[in-house]
From TrEMBL:
PROSITE patterns assigned: TM4_1 (PS00421)
InterPro entries: Tetraspanin/Peripherin (IPR018499), Tetraspanin_animals (IPR000301), Tetraspanin_CS (IPR018503), Tetraspanin_EC2_sf (IPR008952)
Identification of the protein by name: Tetraspanin
Membrane-spanning intervals of the chain: 12-36, 43-66, 184-209
Record-stated family: Belongs to the tetraspanin (TM4SF) family.
Pfam families: Tetraspanin (PF00335)
Keyword Transmembrane: yes
Length: 223
């Protein structure tokens, strides 16, 4: 089931983040050693690492901007598979399910397109829809229940539907988009701040290299 909840774009993004994290650790180590011991070679590597990270971040931003519709479709597919296979008793999916329960609780939404997405869940189908996802609940008595399924208190003849559930009917897709738009300024500010810090690091590394070069030149004995 976990393989159904992946996509090439998200896998590539994960690999990029892992690579950037490893490069950042290496960069910090090289920068410290180069600055303390005044080694031009290490400072040059430090500059190169910062440049690579900056280019990677800009490239990732451009990919997200120009491929946003494709990414949106892939996220929709992942969430729909997650909802369809949601099972509170499966530990191998616990982390993903907990994340989705958190999203539904915080945004006060249900499903990706709407609460009707949960009608595709295999467990709920077997239970004739007489249970519903607790994290979708709009009832005050279920606010303390973070995950799993809750029993439908109102008696239903035969099979129930999502319309019988005490849940939020709005899907999380609109809520996630609204959150991103509301926090776009903060996100851009953080990205800009990180880019400025990286540029300052590049400038400082160049300055240190020049100073070391000047000191080496003055130490050369005149003939």
């Amino acid at each position: 089931a976990l393989t159904e909840m992946s996509s090439p774009s998200l896998k590539n993004a994960a690999y990029v983040l892992i690579g950037v994290g490893a490069l950042t650790m290496l960069m910090g180590f090289l920068g410290c050693i180069g600055a303390v011991n005044e080694i031009r070679c290490l400072l040059g590597l430090y500059f190169t690492c910062l440049l690579v990270i900056l280019i990677t971040q800009v490239s990732a931003g451009l990919v997200i901007y120009f491929q946003k519709e494709k990414l949106k479709d892939e996220v929709s597919h992942i969430v729909e598979n997650l909802i369809e296979n949601y099972d509170p008793l499966k530990d191998d999916q616990r982390s993903l399910q907990d994340v989705w329960d958190y999203v539904q609780r915080q945004i006060a939404c249900c499903g990706w397109n709407g609460a009707n997405d949960w009608e595709n869940n295999r467990i709920l189908i077997n239970r004739s829809m007489t249970e519903y996802p607790c994290s979708c609940s709009n009832s005050s008595k279920n606010l303390q229940v973070d995950s799993g399924f809750c029993n439908l208190d109102v008696p239903v003849n035969g099979t129930a539907t999502y319309a019988d559930w005490p849940v939020h009917e709005e899907g999380c897709m609109n809520g996630v988009e609204k959150w991103l738009k509301d926090n776009l300024g903060v996100i851009l500010g953080v990205c800009t701040g990180v880019a400025v810090i990286e540029l300052l690091g590049m400038i400082l590394s160049i300055s240190l290299c020049k100073n070391i070069h000047s000191e080496d030149y003055t130490k050369v004995p005149k003939s």
